[in-house]
Fold each of these.
Amino acid sequence: MDEAFKPEAYKFRSMSAEDIPFVVQMEQVCFTSPWSERMLRAELKNRFAHYLVLETETGLIAYAGMWIMFNEAHITNVAVMPQYRRRGLGRSIMLECMKKALVLGATQMSLEVRVSNQAARNLYSNLGFTSEGRRKRYYEDTGEDALILWNRDVLATIEELRA
Ligand SMILES: CC(C)(COP(=O)(O)OP(=O)(O)OC[C@H]1O[C@@H](n2cnc3c(N)ncnc32)[C@H](O)[C@@H]1OP(=O)(O)O)[C@@H](O)C(=O)NCCC(=O)NCCS
């Protein structure tokens, strides 16, 4: 396994202002409609927003964000740099978000995903998310529909995965 992926060789931490240029790059590499620097900086001032980055000795390789309102968390973004995918990092950063959401009082979590994004749909399905609806032509760049996924019991999922 790659040296960078020994458990002690990477860590999750909250996103800071200094991370924004690297996160902008991740957005550009990972999404067809990337968030801008201005949008990401605004999130640092949003009291409902919580963003995590995954850092190795060589830099940031993944990030994820969510908004937490009362007992609901809503995932805004999840991205892993292409060369680091399929090593469990997307799952790890989602689990970090789920644990943080619980600590902050959210018991359930939602997100939108492109119908065609099978990689992400598999990731979320393995973490207890199921489809509860569809937003027609939600993505302006392609006109694609979004599925609205929910995990209605984040604690139960985390306990099941620990068992
Ligand atoms: C979706 C994404 C975050 C997954 O990250 P990752 O680190 O590769 O995911 P993991 O290695 O943790 O994979 C977890 C599970 O997701 C599913 N998965 C991940 N990539 C997949 C792929 N290319 N094809 C099918 N299933 C895939 C699998 O079920 C996988 O479990 P397995 O490896 O045991 O089969 C990553 O592909 C990405 O950044 N994509 C671009 C941005 C994006 O689409 N974000 C989601 C927006 S809703």
Note: Strands lie at 10-14, 49-56, 59-69, 72-80, 108-114, 130-135, 146-151.
Amino acid sequence: MRIIVAITGASGIAYGVRLLEELRRAEAEVHLVVSEAAKKIMAYETDYELAEVRKLSRETYREDDIAAALASGSFQYDGAVIVPCSLKTLAALARGYADNLITRMGLCALKEGRRLVVVPRETPLDLASLRNLVAVRENGAVVLPAMPGFYHHPRGINELVEYVVGKILDQLGIPHQLFERWSGK
Ligand SMILES: Cc1cc2nc3c(=O)[nH]c(=O)nc-3n(C[C@H](O)[C@H](O)[C@H](O)COP(=O)(O)O)c2cc1C
């Protein structure tokens, strides 16, 4: 299974990194783009080293590498995830503004009808961003906000992160045991 992961400059970089770890466990072939803003936030809010994060993928690309394979609609893959997805990247996707490899890849996914999961992280949401969420949904993306549930009684931050990552894996059709599914009480 070939998956594209893009990490953009929103808080919640851990969601992206934890997803990469799970994709490695699932032996997926991962193609990774980390935006310049995401690199800064990774350093600010996590203990992850970019070089270590990159090792979780098969291929990594710079956000300005607009000639990369991922920039073409002919690139074949099973799903793409932008996690976390900044409101700026969301706006570009909603308006067809392919200003870097991440937005170009996302817009190619939409035009080719490929599975694209966007994981926005911001609160509260301004009206433009709410409309942008509707626009990308109407255009075929799955909007999966970083909103962990609490009914599985998380015992810390890791389990909150894993809840969201599990929901992403569900969208990709990848089995996991990151949270206990509700089975009725
Ligand atoms: C510490 C920090 C936290 C941020 N958190 C968010 C966030 O949670 N959501 C968001 O949409 N933007 C956030 N931003 C702003 C984005 O990083 C900024 O809009 C950037 O241009 C996004 O670029 P990118 O989408 O190319 O990664 C944050 C910026 C900083 C410095």
Note: The domain at 2-172 is CATH 3.40.50.1950 (Rossmann fold).
